[in-house]
Write a structure and sequence with these properties.
- It is built from 28 helices and eleven strands.
- A hairpin with a 3-residue loop joins β9 (about 675-680) and β10.
- It is α+β, with helices and mostly antiparallel strands and about 750 residues long.
- The chain is globular, with a radius of gyration of 29 Å.
- α5 (about 100-125) packs parallel to α8.
- A five-stranded antiparallel beta sheet has the order 4-5-11-7-8, with no helix packed on it. It has a four-stranded antiparallel beta sheet with strand order 1-6-10-9, with no helix packed on it.
Length: about 750
């Protein structure tokens, strides 16, 4: 009985941090977690429609390979921002499907996992459970998750970064195949679910850690140990590639079809920085956002770098105490990322753009701040752990740290309110706090939170300097930190997390009325299907054709195929004439592409003219065939990857389907494979013979499908290895237990 009680209490101690992190993630984002208000901006008008579409594909037993409802069709399989191959999306999408409620659950799940990841990273670094728990709380309530709540791919990346860093540290410490498998699985999660820029930057951090660990092994161990470490790294690399094969192959096939394959322009790489004025969010996150963001020279989602007053105090303390090399690496990495995150205000981001591979492929310098937050929290955790393990013998540095923050805080507040009319009473009574206010001013917000932060600093200082019992002290510090972080989150959340004027229930009722599965497309002209029309509802105003199941020419999506973009941007008259057709149509006149310039001069484009390149034109040559107004075509069945049409023609005709012709499209007529041509520079066309025919258009990207099965097999083997090793590791424990 005593042994059973001991086991019970050990389990409680083991699982209570996870239970607390889950409870706090729900409490912190309660408006979303309790299904009150919907998430905001890009998350609801980009991530939500894509996940909704992926879920419908899976529930109809289709691989989510092609999205026909945006930009006249694009390969969603190659869109890293859609999370199309991400396991969480597959699980939710297949079993429940995506609606506004499951989307909220998905978000809270990742917030919780982010806290767990940082907690486990702290444990891997040798910090105590209490210190690691505080790190996890600070991380999941940090300015990155609050400010960028709308960017679901960013949230996913932020979730898995601590797991990956911790797994790599564990790989170095233990050097077993189990650690290799775990690391590769986490890499699969961030590659398939996250924003690519974070993975690109993470690779550089991993290289730095690899070099450091290599030096440590060479310096203190032997050649055999180093060769084992190299071999494990090689296996981790190969396994990560195999796991992510489907994503890597999809992107590889996409690159020739997009403009961004060669990188972006410098002005784009410098857009939306963590501007110098945004740095006040280290102490005053509520003072770094406003309805009018012109003063910050960035977006309101890019200004928040807060991770709690207590952790900030100990970060400053950590700057001045003796640290092991690995903590110094994280410190220097964080400082370097901070310098780069300010973008155009310092030359570092531009230097990286020109001279470091991959840094010319992503925008938003402010995204680098997630690495700042992770690194600074690690330094804070080290200082906290040293303090509570009595490795810091004097509180002098701690007093200096608190005093420096007080001075900085008072200075910021004084500068920003000097000569300004505050009218704080009216600001509070008019509902300027805990709401998205269009009337509150920055001085009001800075002064209001400045008072709050000053009170928190006084409480923290009193606890640190007066309470000698370390256990009691730490419990009180965690409580104060949680209140501090929750309050900062709730002040910022109406601006960057949720729509307070809309309810999740109303959005669910709206989407429940929309067509399910994949009905036959309407016979409306494509030009009539656009987002910003009567389709919108509340915060839903982009990518709505995914919900309404309409083939559309517009949409909010960064992936635009190069021919389609050229047609839209450089030949708008031809583009406009094309989308004045129904989704499928017969060409009246077939013209060679060389004639486009002449038609452009005379503005002579008409909906029934179709242009082909010279080779295809010579193969088809239907422009002099007899045509009948009674020729007809109609849909028999429709899915994103397979369309069956029935045609009735009195002569050979060229049939155009307004979907972009991309790698993987195949056509057959009466079960006989036929060539697929490119009409009007971008769209699918096939030659249909006279008579009654069954035309099948199918999207079958064989290499990508093969990559899917490679990933599936690799992941299955990885999971089996992990399960078998876990059973073996714990089998002795269960065999030795006595159950009464």
């Amino acid at each position: 009985m005593i042994q059973s009680q001991s086991l019970f209490y050990r389990n409680i101690k083991l699982f209570y941090p996870f239970a607390l992190l889950l409870l706090l993630s729900i409490l912190g984002y309660w408006q979303v977690a309790l299904l009150q208000h919907p998430l905001k901006w890009d998350l609801i008008d980009q991530a939500y429609p894509w996940k909704y579409f992926i879920g419908e594909c899976l529930q109809n037993h289709l691989l989510p390979l092609w999205n026909p409802y945006q930009h006249c069709g694009y390969p969603i399989n190659a869109d890293p921002q859609s999370s199309v191959w991400y396991p969480v999306v597959w699980i939710i999408g297949y079993f429940w499907g995506y609606n506004i409620y499951t989307l909220s659950f998905d978000f809270i799940l990742h917030i919780f996992l982010a806290g767990v990841g940082m907690f486990l990273l702290g444990k891997k670094l040798g910090f105590s459970q209490s210190v690691s728990l505080l790190m996890g709380i600070g991380y999941m309530f940090s300015g990155f998750f609050v400010g960028n709540a709308q960017h679901f791919m960013w949230i996913i990346s932020g979730t898995w970064l601590p797991f990956i860093i911790g797994a790599y540290i564990n790989l170095y410490n233990k050097r077993k195949i189990r650690q290799v498998v775990i690391f590769s699985l986490f890499m699969f999660m961030i590659v398939t679910g996250g924003y690519p820029a974070f993975t690109m930057i993470l690779l550089y951090l991993l290289i730095i850690l690899f070099i450091f660990f290599s030096v440590e092994i060479i310096k203190y161990e032997n050649l055999r140990s180093y060769l084992i470490f190299i071999r494990l790294n090689a296996i981790a690399l190969v396994l990560s590639i195999l796991n992510t094969s489907v994503m890597l192959i999809s992107i590889y096939k996409l690159l020739p079809y997009i403009l961004r394959a060669n990188g972006i322009q410098l002005i784009q790489a410098l857009s939306y920085p963590l501007s110098p004025k945004s740095l006040i969010s280290f102490l005053l996150p509520y003072g770094a956002l406003n309805y009018d963001m012109s003063a910050f020279d960035t977006d309101l989602s890019m200004t928040n770098i807060y991770f709690g007053l207590l952790l900030t105090i100990f970060f400053i303390l950590g700057l001045f105490i003796k640290k092991p090399i690995i903590i110094k690496i994280f410190l220097y990495w964080g400082i370097f990322m901070l310098i780069a995150a300010v973008g155009k205000y310092l030359p570092v981001r531009e230097f990286l753009y020109h001279y470091l591979p991959l840094f010319n492929f992503f925008r938003f310098p402010s995204l680098l701040r997630i690495f700042v937050i992770i690194s600074f929290i690690i330094v804070s955790g080290f200082a906290l752990n040293s303090y509570f393990e009595n490795k810091i013998r004097t509180t002098k540095l701690l007093r200096y740290s608190i005093a420096s923050i007080v001075i900085i805080l008072v200075t910021i507040v004084a500068i920003n309110i000097h000569g300004k009319f505050l009218h704080l009473g009216g600001y509070i009574s008019d509902g300027g706090i805990f709401t998205f206010s269009k009337t509150s001013t920055l001085p009001q917000q800075i002064f209001f939170q400045g008072i709050i932060q000053f009170v928190f600093l006084l409480i923290i200082a009193f606890l640190l300097l007066k309470i000698k019992n370390k256990i009691k002290l730490f419990k009180l510090l965690i409580l104060v930190s949680v209140i501090d972080l929750l309050l900062a989150l709730q002040l910022n959340a109406p601006y960057s997390v949720y729509y307070e004027q809309n309810t999740q229930k109303s959005i669910l009722e709206f989407t429940n009325q929309l067509p399910k599965d994949f009905p036959l497309p309407s016979n409306k002209q494509i030009i009539e299907n656009y987002d910003r029309s009567s389709l919108s509802f509340g915060p839903l105003w982009k990518n709505l054709n995914i919900f309404h199941k309409q083939i559309a020419y517009d949409g909010s999506n960064p992936i635009k195929l190069i021919n389609y973009q050229y047609l839209n941007d450089s030949l708008p008259c031809l583009f406009s004439a094309t989308i004045k057709n129904q989704p499928v149509f017969f060409a009246k006149n077939i013209i060679v592409n060389d004639s486009i310039k002449n038609y452009l001069k005379e503005n002579a484009f008409t909906p029934d003219n179709v242009f082909l390149n010279r080779d295809d034109f010579n193969k088809v040559k239907l422009q002099y065939q007899n045509q009948s107004k009674e020729d007809s075509v109609w849909f028999l069945s429709f899915s994103p990857t397979k369309i069956i049409l029935k045609t009735h023609c009195y002569s050979n005709r060229l049939l155009t389907f307004i979907q972009n012709n991309y790698y993987g499209w195949e056509a057959s007529i009466n079960d006989k494979k036929v060539p697929v041509y490119t009409a009007n520079l971008s769209f699918i066309a096939v030659e249909v013979p006279a008579g009654i025919c069954m035309v099948t258009l199918e999207y079958k990207p064989k290499l990508i499908i093969a990559g899917f099965y490679v990933s599936l097999i690799s992941l299955t083997i990885s999971l089996l290895v992990l399960i078998i090793q876990t059973i073996r590791k714990h089998s002795h424990f269960f065999l030795n237990q006595k159950f009464y």
